Amino acid sequence: MANFCLWNEFELKKPPLVTIQVSDTGFAKHVFVVINRYLQQLSGADFVEFEQTAALIGRLMARRKNSFRGFPGFRAVCKLNAALCRLLRLDLTRELQHFRGALPDVCDNDMAGEMPTRSSFEYVLVRLLSFYHLQERIRNCCLAAARYFGQMLRGNFFMEFLTVLIAAIAKIHKFSALQANNCATLYNKLLPQRARFPQVEKHQFLPENCKLPTQLAQIKVITPTKEITTETPITLQTSTVVTKVDKAKRKAKEDVGTVVERKPPAAAEKPAFEINTLVTLCDVKHFIQSESKARKNSPDSCITKSLKNHEWLAAQTLFERKVKAREGDKALNIFRKFIASKI
Question: What is the three-class DSSP state of 19?
Fold first, then answer.
């Protein structure tokens, strides 16, 4: 019970940092390397994201402190925020940096030097225990809050807010497990060096009935991994709707038919008419009379079938005007050129 109260002491008194001359400082190199490696891990991206998410938890709690104050899950969030604040007040990084600064600069088995006392080293170990158990409390509060608010989320209550809150709690739980494992690794490596530090009989930090745990357990962190399956993927065959148009197209493709020899159409015989037959005005008048009858009786087979009715009437009118004006030669030439261009 005394062990539990020691690491959970809120106002734990720090022993004075005193250094004593020792003849063997070789083990201090191992202590320095282990502490320095742990401090490098605290400056990583995971630790920074943990601090940012912890600040987000505090803002979310303050936003809903009136509407959620009666919910058991919200009380778990308040306990989580209190544990995060206490973790910030613990300031393990500062304690490790102070102890690392008290170690000798040059360490060797045959070299003497000044080393911190065992009380200062035990104080660091107790702080590591406090950090480890605070992380355990943080994870328990995360599970309690997520279990309660998960039920509310399934009931479609406060969807947007609870989604953000549960995501933040999940991040805190994940990073807390990682930090607890790093702390346990550091504690397990530092504890065997405890007996090598010099001890002052009048200044003992740990009580006689207090014993430090011999080892801290590692926490299993489950990381989601994608399972690679070698099975062939199953393709679903969707039924397609076949319309009448599709059926007609398929039938047209299938029905090739039979090859039929087709003869090219015979060229239409042009009416045998020579423009040179129109020599005199009488020939033109006779041509106009015969052609007018042919256009009425058989318009498709007449000589001037390409002429429209108004063109044929205009040609006749122009010819008659020139004849009345006693311009016979001119009337003959104009009519012949017009008929020759149209036939």
Answer: strand
pLDDT, mean of residues 50-60: 83
β-bridge partners, 21: 114
E strands present in the chain? 19-22, 113-116
For residue 278, give the H/E element and its range: none
Q: Are 76 and 57 in contact (CB under 8 A)?
A: no
- For the stretch 302-327, pLDDT in tens is 888 888 888 888 888 888 888 888 88
What gap in Å lies between CA 280 and CA 332, rounded to an integer? 7
**Is the pLDDT at 254 greater than 60, yes or no?**
yes
d(CA 333, CA 279): 10
CA distances from residue 58 to 68, 113, 166 in whole angstroms, order as listed: 14, 47, 13
323 with 281: CB under 8 angstroms?
yes
The answer to whether 162 touches 152, Cβ cutoff 8 Å, is yes
Of 79, 66, 40, nearest to 172 (Cα)?
79
Cβ neighbour number for residue 285 with a 10 Å cutoff: 14
Paired tokens of 10:
């809120």
- Cβ neighbors of 77 (< 8 A, separation 6 or more) are 57, 60, 61, 68, 141, 145, 165, 169
| Residue 96 scores a pLDDT above 80 | yes
Contacts of 153 (CB under 8 A, 6+ apart): 159, 162, 163, 166
Within a 10 A sphere around the Cβ of 168, how many other Cβ atoms? 21
Give the span between the Cα atoms of 24 and 5, in whole angstroms.
34
In this prediction, residue 198 carries a pLDDT of 84
**Residue 16: predicted pLDDT:** 81
pTM over 0.85: no
- Answer for the pair 125, 191: CB distance below 8 angstroms, yes or no: yes
Which residues 6+ apart lie within 8 Å of 74 measured at CB?
Answer: 61, 64, 65, 68, 145
- Could you tell me the residue ranges of all domains in the chain? 2-196, 275-342
